[in-house]
Write a structure and sequence with these properties.
The complex is a heterodimer of chains A (302) and B (227). By secondary structure, chain A is of the alpha+beta class. Chain A is built from 12 helices and 4 strands, in the order ααβαβααβααβααααα. The relative contact order of chain A is 0.16. The model of chain A has no long low-confidence stretch (mean pLDDT 87). By secondary structure, chain B is of the alpha/beta class. Chain B has 7 helices and 10 strands. Classes of the chains: A alpha+beta (302), B alpha/beta (227).
């Protein structure tokens, strides 16, 4: 068994080297497919970052009547934090609200004077609520309508911003779904292209398969070298895809950062290089080996 | 050793390749299967090496019933046979040495044995100095000698040669036939399919003549007589 395995590996390496042009062509096509696969992974990262950045900007605020005590607001905060849809709740007291207001209107003497004329703080305490997903705001808003909470509430921003939140929620959901569908379709296309390339390569060697069979080679010995070729092709293409991607991403990183704040795609690539290599190897070696296995099977009869 | 028992090969009602073929070949024999193109010689060879299955009848080769062998069993059976084809069927990406060694490698023979045997056999077929050459660097006669070396290197009980001289000039034809005779003299059974009248008549060995898929003559020390 060890002798057979070592011969299969030897034959595979020998075929790969001696069929230099064919091997180069197969590696090139696989490389293109893997660049698509890497592009899809990184597209997913960019989309997720963009979606997260938009999601981060969405929240709803609940304003409490000035008669509501801080303890009552804080106990409502605790109730809301216990909801599974709620990511976090920020409490802004009446004093903090006034400070924020003053900061925002710094230099606007008329407004500041009007506040001081009033003699007391007219602003309400409020809670800023963030959900995990935009479509969860409606559910949270339903909870705010509960009489135990509603009796203290003077206004809720969800009802004012419902249309915008729902629209953003739909856009985010469509972008995610579209990205997933695009990934599946392009991955399938890339896989099929690699399969057909390997099928053509093996088709060109079908006579050799016949000769090997006529000499008494077992299916394992005939098919094995093609699978070794597949493993080698997938590995080389996977490594090359990362080598090519590195300078391209370094160039694109600053440009993408402008569109999606907080995203450094090159940093992501650098930090996750081993997991990316793993995924590329899994896809490249997997597709090439399975393609070789399936394509050679056809010529293993008689 | 080899026995065809009432073998038929019918592709369709208009194409009957073999009809009621029955013959036996004993160990050490040199048998020529002759006939015109389309007489059924190559079909007999293909059935004998399991490339095709008969429509009816049984084919025995030693302990094997060839017509019942599955795809998985065929490789082991073929390691008992050496086959020489008209178109040489050498692996183009392997050197002459590697082509011959391949027959031993598929049989799982150890590397040391391969390193000893292959040069000896290449010497025997007169290609001791061409081991490193690839098929495209060899002449037709040399290619066929490599094919013969590959067919005999694992010391099979039988060598089957299907039109081995079909692509060769008269000089190389005689060279190959002499080589096959030499192998037969060393004890290997030889089955030769050919339509070359001069070769068959010069051999003075057993001749089975096929015509339209039927055996019309089977003679010890026979001649190729055109019908």
């Amino acid at each position: 068994m060890i002798t057979t395995l070592s011969r299969i590996i030897h034959f595979g390496l020998q075929n790969f080297w001696r069929n230099g042009l064919l091997s180069t062509g197969t590696v090139a096509i696989t490389l293109l497919a893997l660049m698509v696969s890497l592009g899809l992974i990184l597209f997913g990262v960019v989309t997720d970052a963009a979606v997260a950045s938009v999601q981060d900007k969405i929240d709803i605020s609940v304003y409490f009547k000035t008669s509501t005590s801080e303890d009552q607001v804080l106990s409502i905060k605790q109730v809301l934090e216990a909801l599974p849809e709620v990511k976090n709740v920020d409490y802004v007291s009446r004093d903090q609200a006034l400070e924020i207001f003053k900061t925002e209107h710094e230099g606007d003497e008329e407004v500041l004077q009007a506040i001081s004329i009033l003699g007391s703080n007219p602003l309400e305490a409020y809670l800023n609520i963030r959900a995990y997903k935009p479509n969860q705001y409606a559910l949270i808003d339903e909870n705010l309508k509960n009489p135990s909470i509603a009796q203290y509430v003077s206004s809720r921003s969800y009802s004012e911003n419902q249309l915008v939140i729902d629209r953003l929620s739909r856009i985010i959901s469509n972008v995610s779904l579209g990205g997933f569908a695009l990934t599946i379709i392009l991955a399938l296309v890339a896989g099929l292209i690699v399969y057909n390339t390997i099928r053509l390569a093996i088709y060109s060697g079908r006579d050799e398969i016949g000769i090997m069979r006529a000499v008494g080679a077992s299916n394992f010995l005939v098919r094995g070298p093609f699978m070794v070729d597949g493993i080698l092709t997938g590995t080389i293409a996977a490594v090359l895809s990362l080598i090519i991607a590195a300078p391209v991403l370094s160039f694109l990183s600053s440009k993408l950062g402008g569109f999606v704040p907080g995203l450094d795609i090159f940093q992501y690539f650098y930090t996750n290089i081993f997991s990316l290599l793993g995924l590329q190897l899994l896809f490249g070696v997997g597709v090439c080996t399975i393609s070789s296995f399936l394509a050679a099977r056809r010529y293993l009869k008689n | 050793m080899i026995a065809f028992q009432n073998v038929f090969k019918i592709y369709n009602s208009h194409s009957v390749a073999l009809e009621d073929i029955a013959f036996q070949v004993s160990p050490g024999e040199f048998v020529s299967i002759v006939g015109r193109s389309g007489a059924g010689k190559s079909t007999v060879i293909r059935l004998l090496i399991g490339e095709e299955k008969p429509t009816k009848g049984r084919i025995f080769f030693g302990q094997y019933e060839v017509n019942k062998l599955t795809d998985r069993e065929l490789p082991a059976f073929r390691r008992h046979v050496g086959v020489v084809f008209q178109d040489f069927r050498l692996l183009p990406m392997k050197s002459a040495y590697e082509n011959v060694a391949f027959a031993l490698e598929v049989a799982g023979r150890p590397q040391r044995e391969i390193s000893d045997l292959v040069p000896q056999v290449l010497d025997m077929v007169g290609l001791g100095d061409k081991g490193k050459n690839f098929p495209h660097e060899l002449s037709g006669g040399e290619k066929q000698r490599v094919a013969i070396a590959r067919a005999m290197v694992h010391r099979p009980e039988v060598i089957i040669a299907d039109e081995p001289t079909g692509n060769l000039d008269p000089f190389h034809t005689m060279e190959i036939i002499n080589l096959l005779l030499k192998i037969n003299q060393l004890g290997t059974t030889l089955v030769l399919a050919t339509h070359n009248k001069d070769i068959v008549n010069g051999l003075n060995k057993r001749v089975i003549t096929l015509d339209h898929g039927r055996i019309i003559r089977d003679e010890e020390k026979g001649k190729y007589i055109l019908v």
